[in-house]
Design a protein that fits this description.
heterodimer; B: Rossmann fold; six-stranded mixed β-sheet; globular
Chain lengths: 313, 264
């Protein structure tokens, strides 16, 4: 029990970092109605770019910015495969993700793992800083929960603004009803590419933050990222859906969902002593169940749906 | 206002499902023309509207709207000129977005989507007034998601959205077919009001012969991808359902086999 409580801040910090990724996934999954598998690759791309640039002496903020831009590029590739080449969205994501495996290795100098020395470089977030804080060596201003929390709030503010603009609204319309969007003169193809770019930019940022936090980038760090992101989205909606109607709060709910996910995982690991190699299986089962339950509900416990109801909602 | 010159469209060419949906259609609409379109299933009515709207590009021929050649323009670029209401009430509005958001999207039809606010306070007042004219109580529900509305309400809203920015051309694809008779009559009435108020050039497909006769100043009947009958002016005013059937039989050289056409 003690070990669990001690591990809580770490789990929360990690959850917050993954929450940035989940917010990115929310944009494609909920707003654009696309399951974007690019993220498994672009998450690692973000981590790799961030770590390599910091090791090359870049300022950490510029390294994060570069990670975001490269992440957006990966989203653009998927978007163009889908819109300009007519490849189904899921397959486009898979193609980009597969290609990124090689790209990520190349970024990391053909190594599967690149560590970054916390003592040597000035980082933004690090597990070490969290430990230092516990020992009273650092202020809360450097605590990963504070730093990533602030970044998350800033991102939510920017996204809230963006999706309220003409362009952002047209993007939401593209996901909600492409026929309507085109009839209203909205370039749905461009919007899909744009949405995938914004989303993967956030995913890469999250990857860059995690790589700093754990002080290494690893070729496998994005494996199953989409499932973790979906878990966060769904947990956020199930727990806070009734409470949060406003778009900004919905995004906050996704971030909180990611934290809850990591705390629960930590609890399972600490309290049951399960081999952590089973965690991916556990995640897959949980997310699978959460995705299936609404379908079962609709199929076996359906009240007659109202004509004109929100079948697409 | 609309000039269609000899357009052809064949679906699934070279397969067993090959179907020539438009077989050399030419049609010119003057400003303010309200043309009703009838014809059996598969006659090419919806295909004609989709060709004009740019759902896909035609195989040959040309289309121009208000003097602008749109033959090769994609759908979203033609939208600048065109207001549309679909047969399926689900297609014309974004279900997960609010009523006012849907209207705001329509308000910006044909304009670049910038980083300015997606909707302004002034617009909200304007939308409230406009929604009042529908008489459906929607003016009190500006922030309700459209998915919560009935099919009739959605169709009325779509009509409002299609005409919010005065279009050069209004395309109505059996927009009352999925509604109950009472609601359908209401939406048709609203259509008539808006079309005559703004003097809109309109193409309206209907399966109801009486509606086709009652509304508009010109009537065309399609058969096998061609315009088989074209009546306008005084001739159209004096038209009866029986006349129409006779004209059709003469033009098509066959008895009217489609029951749906006889309804009404």
């Amino acid at each position: 029990m003690n070990s669990f409580i001690n591990a809580l801040p770490g789990a929360a910090a990690q959850g917050l970092i993954w929450g940035v990724m989940a917010i990115g996934l929310y944009i494609t999954y909920r707003l654009l109605n696309i399951s974007d598998l690019t993220v498994d690759g672009s998450f690692c791309t973000g981590g790799a770019v961030g770590v390599m640039l910091i090791m090359n002496g870049w300022n950490v903020w510029f390294a994060l910015l570069a990670a975001i831009l490269v992440g957006m590029l990966t989203g653009m590739v998927t978007g163009l495969l889908h819109t300009s080449c007519g490849i189904p969205a899921i397959l486009s994501g898979i193609l980009t993700q597969l290609g990124l495996w090689s790209v990520n290795l190349a970024i990391m100098g053909m190594k599967a793992n690149q560590s970054i020395n916390v003592n040597k470089y000035k980082l933004l977030v690090s597990l070490r800083y969290l430990q230092d804080f516990n020992k009273g060596k650092r202020t809360f201003l450097e605590h990963p929960i504070f730093v990533v929390g602030m970044i998350t709030l800033a991102l939510i503010a920017v996204l809230y603004w963006f999706f309220g603009t003409e362009l952002g609204s047209s993007l939401r319309a593209t996901g909600s009803n492409p026929s309507m969007a085109r009839a209203q003169g909205i370039n749905t193809n461009r919007n899909i590419v744009l949405g995938l770019m914004v989303s993967n930019g956030l995913v890469a940022l999250s990857g860059a933050l995690l790589a700093q936090y754990q002080s290494f980038a690893d070729i496998n760090m994005g494996r199953g990222a989409i499932v973790i992101g979906l878990a966060a989205v769904i947990i956020g909606e199930v727990i806070f859906g009734k409470l949060f109607r406003n778009f900004a709060f919905k995004l906050l709910g996704v971030s909180l969902g990611a934290i809850i996910y990591y705390v629960v995982i930590q609890a399972v690991v600490s309290l049951s002593g399960i081999n952590s190699n089973y965690l991916k299986l556990l995640s897959a089962i949980i997310v699978g169940l959460f995705l299936a339950v609404p379908y079962w509900k609709g199929k076996y416990f359906a009240k007659a749906a109202r004509k004109g109801g929100s079948a697409h909602a | 206002m609309l000039e269609i010159k000899n357009i052809f469209k064949t679906f699934n060419p070279g397969t067993v499902n090959q179907k020539t949906a438009l077989n050399g259609v030419s049609l010119t609409l003057n400003e303010g023309d309200f043309v009703t379109v009838i014809g059996g299933n598969g006659a090419g009515k919806s295909t004609l509207l989709n060709a004009v709207a740019g759902t896909w590009l035609v195989d040959s021929g040309s289309i121009s709207i208000g003097g602008v050649d749109v033959t090769h323009l994609p759908e979203h670029k033609r939208a600048k000129f065109i207001g549309r209401v679909f047969q399926d009430p689900m297609l014309g509005t974004a279900a997960t977005m609010q009523i006012e958001e849907n209207l705001a999207l329509a308000q910006r039809r044909g304009k670049p989507r910038t980083l300015h606010a997606g909707i302004t306070a002034g617009e909200r007042e304007q939308y409230k007034e406009l929604l009042k004219t529908l008489g459906l109580g929607l003016e009190e529900r500006l922030t309700a998601r459209v998915g919560l509305l009935s099919g009739g309400q959605r169709q009325a809203l779509t009509l409002l959205m299609a005409t919010l920015q005065k279009p050069k051309l209004l395309l109505l694809d059996e927009h009352t077919a999925a509604l109950d008779p009472k609601t359908a009559a209401k939406v048709l009435e609203a259509t008539q009001t808006i079309v005559s108020r703004d003097n809109l050039t309109t193409l309206m497909i209907t399966h109801n012969m009486r509606d086709a006769i009652t509304y508009g100043n010109r009537l065309i009947m399609m058969y096998e991808g061609k315009i088989a009958v074209d009546v306008s002016g005084e001739d159209k005013k004096n038209l009866t359902v029986e006349d129409l059937m006779q004209m059709f039989e003469k033009a098509a050289g066959a008895a009217l086999a489609n029951d749906r056409l006889l309804l009404g």
